[in-house]
UniProtKB/TrEMBL annotation:
Chain positions covered by the region annotation Disordered: 229-261
Family: Belongs to the Rv1128c/1148c/1588c/1702c/1945/3466 family.
Pfam families: DUF222 (PF02720), HNH (PF01844)
GO MF, one annotated term: nucleic acid binding
Annotated ranges, domain HNH nuclease: 365-416
Protein name per its UniProtKB record: Unannotated protein
Annotated InterPro entries: DUF222, HNH, HNH_nuc
Organism: freshwater metagenome
């Protein structure tokens, strides 16, 4: 039973009771009791746990506020309360910082903090109010005055909705202050940072204006939709366009495209957007850069391009012709096969041998024919992903013509696989194509039946 003799003893006893209660609950949830409980009891327990988490987080903020004002951490030789907390727990820097951030909130926002302690709002709700104070210091006094009203709103909505309500209130109070803060943020913080890493990869980060950011999000979503495979269930009916061709080999495992994370899909989507921008015509045409359209220049040794087993790198070059990023010969083959790029082929003496076509090697009409012939699906056996790239069965550097009889549609994954995964491709796309892996196992792929 909790003692109430003194406040100090009350805290000690409540702490001990909480530790015991959490231990009992954790033991029950991890044992047979949870399995034997009714669904209704489990659901009620889960909702209560969410509320308990809110109250515990508020309690952590209260205790952190008291602790940071004490002397324990400095007496033990630590420079800050955060450093002490980080050293005494295994949660790391982030959680320690958040605990002490909450300590400031309980002092600065008393009304919404009371709701936090009761479990009516979450830490995220309090953070919305804290962000508003930080972003609009000119409106802090007004925010203090309407904190009870804002707290009432917060108790009934999720944090995202609360943010919208709060900012709508601020616009009503002082629209000029909102405009001023917006203009200041645009001046001081907007930017897009693009930097090349030592291995040639490029890091992109930054902060965009809301309207530009929304445009980017919309374009990425549209590009992801264009890339997303419209998977259909495989069928054994040979007259169905979804029929999966049988491999010639007995029991190989046909590689399939793995599910990409959203970030990986966004990278693919951005590539598609850049391709579309570089290929735009008329009024939508991008201005020249260095006297020419914005294309990627790749310099590669002629032997590396022609010899299948060569590992000599090519180079992506800058506007001045300086080599900036190494790229494998196979990567150069893949890019020159179907990319918005210009390939400069040089001999061993460094003399120019050939220049590839500047725009997509397969003209739009041929690409449309290939997509129509393949019903828009990658021709790799068993793959139902949408065609992303058009592949030369015999590479143009080896004398392969840019004709529909030498072109086949592949998804990005299998285009990489053919060029850089040790696979080879032979046959006629209007009839049967043979895919051969590095172990010399083979699969056949017939074109979809004409409808």
């Amino acid at each position: 039973m909790t003692s109430t003799a003194t406040p100090a003893l009350a805290l000690r006893d409540a702490h001990a009771d909480a530790v015991r209660a959490i231990g009992d609950l954790s033991g029950a949830a991890g044992g047979e009791s949870l399995a034997m409980a009714t669904d209704e009891a489990v659901a009620e327990c889960l909702v209560d746990l969410f509320e308990m988490r809110r109250r515990i987080e508020a309690t952590i903020a209260d205790v952190s506020a008291r602790f940071s004002g004490g002397t324990t951490w400095s007496a033990e030789g630590f420079r800050t309360a955060r450093d002490w907390l980080r050293a005494r727990t295994t949660d790391g820097l982030g959680p320690a910082s958040r605990a002490l951030e909450g300590a400031h909130w309980v002092r600065d926002f008393p009304v919404i903090t009371d709701a936090w302690r009761s479990g009516a709002v979450s830490r995220a709700h309090v953070e919305v109010l804290a962000d508003a104070h930080e972003m609009f210091p000119r409106l802090s006094e007004a925010l203090v005055g309407i904190e009870p009203e804002l707290t009432a709103h917060a108790c009934g909505v999720d944090p995202a909705s609360f943010r919208r309500i709060l900012f709508a209130q601020l616009h009503l109070i002082d629209p000029d202050a909102i405009d001023e803060a917006d203009a200041k943020k645009r001046r001081n913080h907007l930017g897009l940072h693009v930097s090349r890493l030592t291995d040639g990869f490029v890091r992109v980060d930054g902060l965009l204006a809301p309207e530009v950011g929304q445009h980017l999000l919309t374009m990425l979503a549209a590009a992801r939709d264009a890339l997303r495979a419209k998977d259909a269930s495989p069928t054994d009916d040979p007259f169905s366009p979804d029929y999966v061709p049988r491999p010639i080999a007995d029991d190989p495992q046909i590689p399939r495209e793995s599910k990409s994370r959203l970030s990986a899909r966004n990278a693919e989507a951005l590539s598609l957007i850049l391709d579309a921008a570089a290929s735009a015509l008329g009024d939508n045409r991008l201005p020249d850069t260095g006297g020419e359209r914005p294309v990627v220049h790749i310099t590669v040794d002629s032997d590396s391009l022609i010899e299948h087993g060569s590992h000599a790198p090519g180079w992506i070059t800058g506007l001045t012709g300086t080599h900036v990023t190494a790229i494998t010969a196979r990567g150069a083959q893949r890019l020159s096969c179907d990319a918005v790029a210009e390939l400069l082929v040089v001999d061993k003496r460094g003399h120019l041998d050939a220049i590839s076509t500047r725009w997509r090697t397969a003209p739009p009409g041929m690409r449309r024919y290939v997509l129509m012939r393949e019903h828009g699906r990658c021709r790799f056996p068993g793959c139902h992903t949408q065609i992303r790239e058009v592949h030369h069965i015999i590479h143009w550097a080896n004398g392969g013509p840019t004709e529909t009889s030498n072109l086949v549609g592949l998804c990005s994954h299998h285009h990489h696989l053919v060029h850089e995964g040790g696979w080879t491709l032979s046959g006629h796309p209007d009839h049967t194509l043979i895919f051969t892996d590095r172990l010399k196992r083979t699969w056949r792929s017939d074109p979809p039946l004409r409808e």
